[in-house]
Amino acid sequence: MSLAQVEEEVIEEKVSGEFERERIPESKLKSWKSFLGMYAGEHAAGTEFVIGPLFLTTGVSAFDLIVGLLLGNLMAVLSWRFLTAEIGTKFRYTLYYHLEKICGTRLVTVYNLANGLLFCFLAGAMITISATAVGIPFNMEMPRLTDTMPNSATWVIIVLCIGAVISVVAARGYSMVAKAANWMSPVIVLAFIACGIVSLVNLEISSFSEFWNIWGEGSEPFPGQIKYTFWHVFLWSWFANAAMHIGMSDLSVFRFAKNPGAGWTTAAGIYIGHYIAWIAAALLYAVYLQSPEAQVLLNNGAAPPVAPGPLAYNAIGVFGILAVILAGWTTANPTIYRAGLAFQAVISKTSTFWVTIIAGTVATIAGLFPAFAMKLLDFVALYGFILAPIGAVIVFEYFFGKKAGIQSFYAEKSGIKFNQAVFWAWLISAGVFYIISIQFDIFLSFLTLPAWLSCGILFLLISKTYQKKFKR
Fold first, then answer.
1. Contact between 48 and 185 (Cβ < 8 Å)
2. Does residue 403 form part of some domain?
3. Residue 469 located in a structural domain
4. How many CA within 13 A on the CB side of residue 180?
5. If 0-12 CB within 10 Å is exposed, 13-18 middle and 19+ buried, where does residue 417 land?
6. What is the pLDDT of residue 16?
7. Going by C-beta distance under 8 Å and a sequence separation of 6 or more, which residues neighbour residue 139?
């Protein structure tokens, strides 16, 4: 998840205070090429080495996977183009400043805390992924699909070392890291393609029909996994980045775009990282499943491990180890940095360096527990489910606020610091649908869109009453 020049400037300007609380001037706008580079790199990340294999563990069929990913990722691109880019280029505010105008400073602080913690857990998964590569020369026991706790002292030491290095680099040298990550992105993409080609050779695939039959009509899911259908794949791939598009996080990026058409550039990253890379990573796991070690585990009713390091190493050797380390590193660094910025809104008197160190520490502790990486499909679904509804407040105010008769940017114009209409819409929507998910064992990605729509509608309804009451 590396960040290109445009995002580097977004974050650096936010830290320095330049344009943090005002529209981006015309002289600072970027062409679509800047966004093309950013998204092409951002979505060929360490997570892809885990997500692809995890799809195989769910017993998904070929049609459900290949067509589901094709259409689900298309919906993600459309969400970026017609929602995020549309609003981002209209107002040209950061997400946090836009929310502050609607929600008030105190409620935005609550959002930042939730956002920062979830960023830390995501970065922790990236540290876990890099650790599976670093551990190969040390003959380290790899975490299994069902592992939740650290499995050895070697694992703990490697994770702590990786986390410490990433945290310090993120805290002291983000500009350098962002630029280096841009150079690494083509290497990582090349590694995914190489892994896919080598895997096809190892699987002796010589035709499209043989490729299709890798998944065929699907199978029973591995122990501890749920069965994925077309709708699981379609909705999960649409909402894998829900916080960024329908959750409006990428307003901070698209405020630099000359026009909403820049939103189409997200397709570069989505179809390279969330289509080609996921399928290539799944092929790596398909090769491993044919090994005697994996067969023994399957015959004993256990799920073979999904450890990116060994999978990539078996396919393309040392280059695979480097690719996994770089992919995890270039994802974790900016993610920790973003988490630090979110925390700084909560503890504003603390320096950027120390809030980033705090974020890195939380991420490293999370990285000790393999569950965040091994259950990445579930975690990403939860991440989007929690943060996406707050984006509905921005979307519904922009498209329907005037028709509903509510005041836009109400917190700013009324002087309130905690907009209860936003809070209750968010809490009720997320709470009710999460309870439904637990009570009826429904996968969260099925409920992300209902929760998002519910939050937007409730915001409009509650705002009409709340704003009238406040005026009196």
1. no
2. no
3. no
4. 14
5. middle
6. 43
7. none
Asked whether the CA dihedral 18, 20, 25, 27 is positive or negative, the reply is positive
Residues in the chain: 472
- The sign of the torsion formed by the CA atoms of 280, 285, 288, 290 equals negative
Q: Within 13 Å of residue 196, how many CA atoms lie on the same side as its CB?
A: 20
Which two structure tokens, joined as six digits, stand for 168?
């310090």
CB 305, CB 145: distance < 8 Å: yes
104 dihedral zone (left: phi>0; alpha: psi -120 to 50; beta)? left
The verdict on residue 349 lying in a domain is yes
The residue range of the domain holding 149 is 5-388
Q: How many CB atoms sit inside 10 A of residue 25's CB?
A: 9
Two tokens at 418?
Answer: 């905690």
pLDDT means per 10 residues, the chain with 472 residues, are 44 47 76 76 77 88 95 97 95 88 91 88 90 89 83 91 86 59 75 90 91 90 88 95 91 88 91 90 89 84 82 87 82 78 77 85 93 85 92 96 92 92 95 95 94 97 83 54
Task: Kindly report the CATH number assigned to the domain that includes residue 256.
Answer: 1.10.4160.10
3-state secondary structure the chain: CCCCHHHHHHHHHHHHCCCCCCCCCHHHCECHHHHHHHHHHHCCCCCHHHHHHHHHHCCCCHHHHHHHHHHHHHHHHHHHHHHHHHHHHHHCCCHHHHHHHHHCHHHHHHHHHHHHHHHHHHHHHHHHHHHHHHCHHHCCCCCCCCCCCCCCHHHHHHHHHHHHHHHHHHHHCHHHHHHHHHHHHHHHHHHHHHHHHHHHHHCCCCCHHHHHCCCCCCCCCCCCCCCCCHHHHHHHHHHCCCCCCCCCCCHHHHCCECCHHHHHHHHHHHHHHHHHHHHHHHHHHHHHHCCHHHHHHHHCCCCCCCCHHHHHHHHHCHHHHHHHHHHHHHHHHHHHHHHHHHHHHHCCCCCHHHHHHHHHHHHHHHHCCCHHHHCHHHHHHHHHHHHHHHHHHHHHHHHHHHHHCCCCCHHHHHCCCCCHHHHHHHHHHHHHHHHHHHHHCCCCHHHHHHHHHHHHHHHHHHHHHHHHHHHC
Report whether 288 contacts 214 (CB < 8 A): no
Number of domains within the chain = 1
Task: Give the 3-state secondary structure of 3-15.
Answer: CCHHHHHHHHHHH
- Domain membership flag for residue 424: no
Q: How far apart are CA 311 and CA 243, in angstroms?
A: 29
